[in-house]
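Feature request disguised as a bug report, sorry. It would help if multi-protein outputs had a clear separator. Right now it looks like this:
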Amino acid sequence: MHEQTDRHSKRVMVVDYDDATTDFIAELLQGEGFAPLCYPVWPVSIALIEQAQAHLLILDLGLDNPSATLDLLSALRRNAHTRGLPVIVNSTDDRLLERLAGPLRDLGCVRLAKPFELDDFFVAIQVCLDAGRPQTQFLAC
């Protein structure tokens, strides 16, 4: 069991293209005492993210159009209500995550390759929640 840090009050917004992945991440989060808010839809809007009032956003990079994800992240950082929201960006494409390392670092995101080790997943979450907007880290299996 991972260290509990008042997780029952921590809302984690999960946005992923794949329903099975969204469900899996939600189960992991619930099992650790977090309150997952799942949105298996794209595009997700800044307004929806604001409305969720999450403590953390886990966002799939989207292989079809990763620039849309970068645009969304840029808009999040320009918005006064969401600029400090910690974000974990994940993808099954390790090379794409590596290629976008600079922009994701500049946007204050943690990168997480899928499939991920559970310990890496929870370390990324803890880093984000402890540090607010963390420096980019690359967590891979």
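(second protein starts here, but nothing in the output says so)
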Amino acid sequence: MASLKRAYLKFLKPGPKGPTGPTTVRGKDKLEFSFNPKEYTVAKSAEWKRDATKGAKQVSKAQYIGPQARSVTLEMFLDASNEAKKDVSEEVETLMACLVPLPDSGPKPLPPYVQFGWGPKVLLIAFVKTVSAKYTMFRLDGTPIRAVCSITLEEVPDPSGKQNPTSGALRATSSRVVVAGDSLASLAFAEYGDPTLWRAVAAANAIDDPLRMRPGLRLLMPAIEDLADITGLSGQG
């Protein structure tokens, strides 16, 4: 019987060509859904232009300008009713913090990117465009213990031209959680059958010291076809 997998938003450090590895927002590397979303909406549109002609009896032909970014809208339900000393305002503030640039994002400030995933599937790499939180339950002292957050995510364009995971045509990307005894080499062998690909995994996750990985860390495991693009390696350790 399959075990329950939680949907999550993992925070990624932004770069001029896309995410460069994991990062933290208000001390957190990700937020997990208290309950998995019952639905989410994927939207994409194209921009068209019509030149108006004075006195014309018919509309002019539309000229295709280009595609707009894919977006995902969803609700994130947060619940702390079973945890005596916890409230949900911290998670809400973390989501709100995704709307402002990271302090170390460089000369052109950028907000954190997020990876919207569910179990082993990465559904979207995006930035947070809007957050709206509705608190729905409180303790006697007014502490909020339940909230529903409406979130809009907008995809980060991939400079390589690959499609986003929600299109169904992205080369497979997954993630793995580090447990005690894991090494980058063992994770690379488990994922790709080749332990020498550990350097590319380290580069994809901005890991400077492979010997100091802590249990519980979630690592992005790019498609094997993309590993050479990440480090210029071809699999040799």
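Even a blank line would do. Unrelated, but nice: Residues 165-172, 233-237 have pLDDT under 50 and may be disordered.
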